Amino acid sequence: MIVVIDFGSQYNQLIARRVREQNVYCQIEPPDIDIERLKFLHPEGIILSGGPASIYEKSSPRATPEIFSLGVPVLGICYGMQFMVEALGGTVSRAEKREYGFARLRIQKEEALLSGIGDDTQCWMSHGDSITALPEGFEVTAVTENTPMAAAADPVRGFYGLQFHPEVEHTPKGKQMLQNFLFSVCGCRGDWTMKAFAEEAIAEIRNSVGDKQVILGLSGGVDSSVTAMLIHQAIGDQLTCIFVDNGLLRHNEGVRLKNIFTQHLKMNIDYVDAADQFINALQGVTDPEEKRKIIGKIFMDVFEAEAQKIENAEFLAQGTLYPDIIESQSAFGGPTAIIKSHHNVGGLPEKMKLKLIEPLKFLFKDEVRELGKTLGLPEELVWRQPFPGPGLAIRVIGEITAKRLSVLRLADAILLEEIRESGYYRKLWQSFAVLLPIKSVGVMGDKRTYENILAIRAVTSVDAMTADWAKLPHDLLGKISNRIINEVQGVNRVVYDISSKPPSTIEWE
Ligand code: XMP
Q1: 473 in a structural domain
Q2: Distances (CA, A) of 264 to 46, 257, 267
Q3: 356: domain CATH number?
Q4: Residues with Cβ within 6 A of ligand 1?
Q5: Which of 48, 332, 391, 395 has its CA 20 to 30 A from that of 506?
Q6: Is residue 405 part of a domain?
Q7: Distance of alpha carbon 14 from its chain centroid, rounded?
């Protein structure tokens, strides 16, 4: 495995991605990582990331210089290189010219890291400070017009520095450089696969759980489903998944999920039909925040009551993913702003004195999907679009009634059917229908109608932090609109939402 020391660069996750794409496991750790922990991790190599700080600022993040005595190769990128140079006795000064953007990299010496790169390539620079003197044992291996020490190496000790970013696409030979570091310099084998990950995770879960019981809040989303699969394969019936049907799910979804998990996957599912409780409590409520509060509170009550019934329960499993962890531990990043499904059970572990198990906490979303496939999770679940915890309550704008929920469900089912049929389902981050609290005039047959307006929302996104409205073909939109107006009683107008996030959000609430 490789450890990336996180000095706060916006590209840190990308470094981890690039390493894992080579089938080498990689973990991001904060700069103040304890040296004993680092030794315990037994990395084959260490990458020091870039970062926004200047090494001369007092508050700039630093790692212990002991990392250079571990006998493990180190690759410093941008700020990481400057930190390495300074720690080993070289000097860094403010550059006369700040270098940002594309630069032509000329190779001076083809050593292990720059092997196979050729004489000359493009690289992506983003730095204010520059190295003015290298530590003993280092020599310059590449230059750019404004950066005479754009790359340097001390091959004897296995220390390499790049002043530019090999992890970004703008450095076309960056992948080769990282491969050189992983395989030629560090001697990694490249045999980390999801199968290997699953085997290790299963052994670890067995080991930590022993003969105790584990509870999991199953939503049917990818993260909680894959977590359930993994834990189920580790400890079988010692896992109970609590599935709270809040009556705010999509058409047929509760029953369908229940069947997949109980009959097909043979899991121990505690299916709680709490629809009435939720719908009654939501009567007359129109404010979206109020809806969320009510739903959150009832969910906690129902979940807790069910969990109390499980004897010997000592663990609560959650599908926390790596980006949450990285962002909350990052040297400069604050806690993540993304609302994730596991937040729906937030607060429960402390309240119920349960220990947390988060087996996906080192994985990215697409790796979770890959793991799901490896574990045999049905495709339908592996590729499921995200669905908010408060469900259709935030898609029926205004008051929620059984009638309005049923209008939305039907329209939404048609929309999804067409989106799936057209092959767009996987290309979209989300696609759904929203029922508006406005009526408008229409004409059907010879009769005037005064019915609901339904909005269609379809977006592309990588992480829901930003999103683009999807440029769906007009024909497809036309077909969806026709079908909804013809087949769903109570809708006489369909509109398409063409706003992106920001400034809009994905959900309408
Ligand atoms: P917004 O509307 O803020 O949504 O752009 C961003 C993403 O988060 C989802 N979302 C939620 N997911 N519980 C969840 O599990 C929630 O309470 C919740 N609220 C919004 C939303 O569907 C989108 O993918």
Answers
A1: yes
A2: 43, 10, 8
A3: 3.40.50.620
A4: 339-341, 344, 386, 388-390, 430, 464, 501, 505-507
A5: 332
A6: yes
A7: 12
Å from CA of 419 to ligand 1 middle: 20
- Look up residue 261 and give its two tokens: 């998990």
Same domain, 419 and 467: yes
Q: Which tens digits make up the pLDDT trace of 71-88?
A: 999 999 999 999 999 999
**Minimum CA distance residue for ligand 1 atom 4:** 506
User: Which residue in 127, 165, 232, 342 is the catalytic one?
Assistant: 165
Alpha carbon 22 to its chain centroid, in Å, reads 19
What's the confidence (pLDDT) of residue 188? Answer: 97
Q: Which of 26, 29, 44, 78 is catalytic?
A: 78
Per the structure, the complete domain to which residue 175 belongs is given by 2-185
Test site for ligand 1: of 248, 298, 506, most ligand atoms within 8 A of the Cβ: 506
Tell me what pLDDT residue 347 has: 62
CA distance 267 to 483: 37
* Residues 366 and 453 both lie in one domain: no
Q: Check: CB of residue 26 under 8 Å from CB of residue 17.
A: no
85 in a domain, yes or no? yes
Tokens of 393: 């309550």
- pTM of the full structure: 0.81
Q: Please check whether residues 222 and 313 belong to one and the same domain.
A: yes
pLDDT tens-digit readout, 430-483: 999 999 999 999 998 889 999 999 999 999 998 788 899 999 999 999 999 999
Location of structure tokens 């029922």 = 435
78 catalytic residue (yes or no): yes
Catalytic residue among 44, 99, 111, 167: 167
